[in-house]
Write a structure and sequence with these properties.
The chain is an alpha+beta fold. The protein has 18 helices and five strands. It folds into four domains: 4-133; 140-171, no CATH class; 176-344, no CATH class; 356-396.
Length: 404
């Protein structure tokens, strides 16, 4: 049988795509694959031996289980046939020097559908763009807009609609349902003064109990282990869980000081969880926290609550509630997120941007400066002052249209 389906030339390297059923699944669904070693050479360069860079990238994207190692064991396990293995090894050997072909005894296959995910993880670069374009894979929308913006800048042009769309796309959060089943992407780091305000709070736990440390370690494992039957979605990176743990400790510290409740993840099983989280977020808001920070904190509580709901026994009154406390936390998270986006409409996206009121004041100042010029001023200075006044007047008395 012929497994080969397509060939692509990427910077002088031939990428072969094959069709092979994934017999690890009960229904043996059809899948298109390519050789992981070849993709590693395209993305990272190097010789015919693997440097381990591809494995680390797959691990970072939680895709190590997606690859299929084709060798004698795969034939024994009936994942592939001997004829399929022989054909795969022959295709892989084609791209190697003759002296290295005899060393090839197995081949790691990577689903073609995951190549875009790997490229997005690496970020936009000539290599990742070339690979996706060569394989006729649509580029991420963010990359497409960035490339169009760079082209406009090179030609001295400005597309305000494109700039707005790009800014929104860069700032947009993932759908919240997806956040609960994947790694949470925080808004942005807040200013130092806000972090200091929170850090100086008297709500910090003086000591983390050993039992709580063990619970948080279990939460970390639940979020980072590649295979967890109680978790929906893929694993996340350590830094994400670290932020969640810190937020949970802040919340438990507040509960200890304000409510005199012993710190432990058992509080997430209580019916009053939503009420406590709302009160805590209001207290943080009074201390000057931005809504984007509150959204991050609420998200961390929701992540920990999701872990508790899937692994702990909930109180009977929680099960009897028409709306679960976790759902209430999700509502708070959504509300804080919406308010954060609303507040973002009135914050400067660039340090040199000015408000509409400031633009009018600049026009008035420019007009006064021009009319106040003495009669003895040189013609050049008078023309420069007039040009500045007319330029700002064009954009304030008759502003340009925001859409094409």
């Amino acid at each position: 049988m012929a497994l080969e389906r397509a060939r692509y030339n990427v910077g002088g390297t031939t990428v072969v795509v094959v069709a092979l059923p994934d017999r690890r699944a009960s229904n043996a669904r059809p899948e298109t694959w390519t050789f992981a070693a070849v993709i590693e050479r395209v993305l990272f360069g190097g010789g015919d031996r693997s440097s381990g860079a591809m494995y680390r990238l797959l691990e970072r994207c939680s895709l190590t289980r997606a690859t299929l190692l084709c060798g004698k064991k795969a034939v024994t396990d009936k994942l592939i046939t001997q004829a399929e293995l022989d054909e795969l090894l022959g295709l892989l050997r084609e791209g190697l020097p003759s002296e290295h072909r005899g060393r090839v005894r197995c081949a790691s296959l990577l689903p073609v559908a995951h190549i875009k995910t790997l490229c997005q993880s690496l970020g936009r670069s000539p290599t990742t763009v070339k690979l996706l374009e060569a394989m006729s894979t649509p580029l991420p929308q963010l990359w497409t807009l960035q490339m169009e913006q760079e082209s406009n800048t090179a030609q001295g042009e400005v597309d305000y609609v494109l700039d707005e769309d790009l800014a929104e796309l860069e700032e947009a959060d993932a759908d919240f349902a997806a956040e609960l089943s994947a790694a949470y992407v925080p808004f942005v780091d807040e200013d130092e003064d806000e972090e200091e305000t929170v850090a100086e709070s008297s709500w910090k736990l003086p000591r983390v109990p050993e039992a709580l440390t063990k619970e948080l370690d279990q939460f970390t494992l639940h979020r980072t282990d590649p295979l967890v039957r109680a978790r929906e979605g893929t694993a996340c990176v350590d830094i994400t869980v670290g932020n969640d743990r810190a937020s949970v400790l802040r919340f438990l510290g507040w509960l200890k000081v304000v409510k005199d409740i012993s710190p432990g993840l058992g509080v997430f099983c209580r019916a009053a969880l939503g009420e406590w989280v709302e009160e805590w977020l209001r207290a943080l808001r009074e201390k000057g926290c931005r809504f984007s920070t509150l959204a991050n904190y609420a998200n961390s509580i929701a992540m920990c609550g999701s872990f508790v709901y899937s692994t702990y026994k909930l109180d009977d009154d929680v099960l009897a509630m028409p709306v679960s406390p976790l759902s209430e936390v999700l509502r708070l998270r959504s509300q804080a997120e919406g308010q954060a986006k609303h507040d973002g409409l009135y914050t400067k996206r660039h340090a040199d941007w000015i408000s509409w009121q400031e633009a009018h004041e600049a026009r008035i100042h420019a007009e006064k400066a021009y009319r106040a010029l003495p009669a003895t001023v040189t013609h050049t200075k008078r023309v420069r002052a007039l040009r500045e006044w007319l330029a700002i007047a064009c954009y304030t008395l008759m502003p340009p249209c925001a859409s094409p």
